[in-house]
Amino acid sequence: MAILELILQVILGITSLLLTLLILLHKGRGGGLSDMFGGGMTSALGSSGLAERNLNRFTIVLALVWFVTIVGLGLITKFQVI
């Protein structure tokens, strides 16, 4: 059981870092703090390219892996025999 917990902890660490990186790579949608200070001078084209769609898909899949890892670690912690 300890090996599985260690593997899940490593997966959690890697997915957390990758998820942070992927979220930061997304294009801003506007309406944030930069708009309050005059930084919102971007074009409002609603279409996203193929790279943006693939980034969205990869981010969602990685977020699901992250979520399953969290649930798995929680179940191991709850049912762990001391």
TrEMBL record:
From the record, what ranges are coiled-coil? none
Q: Name one GO cellular component term.
A: plasma membrane
Membrane-spanning residues: 6-25, 57-76
Which InterPro entries does the protein's record reference? Answer: SecG
Q: Where does the UniProt annotation locate this protein?
A: Cell membrane; Membrane
Q: Which UniProt keywords apply?
A: Cell membrane, Membrane, Protein transport, Translocation, Transmembrane, Transmembrane helix, Transport
Listed Pfam families: SecG
The answer to whether UniProt assigns keyword Transferase to this entry is: no
Instruction: Respond yes or no to whether keyword Cell membrane is given for this record.
Output: yes
The GO terms this record gives for MF are: protein-transporting ATPase activity
Q: Which GO terms describe its biological process?
A: protein secretion
Q: How does it sit in the membrane?
A: Multi-pass membrane protein
Q: Which family does it belong to?
A: Belongs to the SecG family.
So what does this one do? Involved in protein export. Participates in an early event of protein translocation.
Task: Report the protein name in the record.
Answer: Protein-export membrane protein SecG
Which species expresses this protein natively? Answer: Microbacterium schleiferi
Q: Which gene encodes it?
A: secG
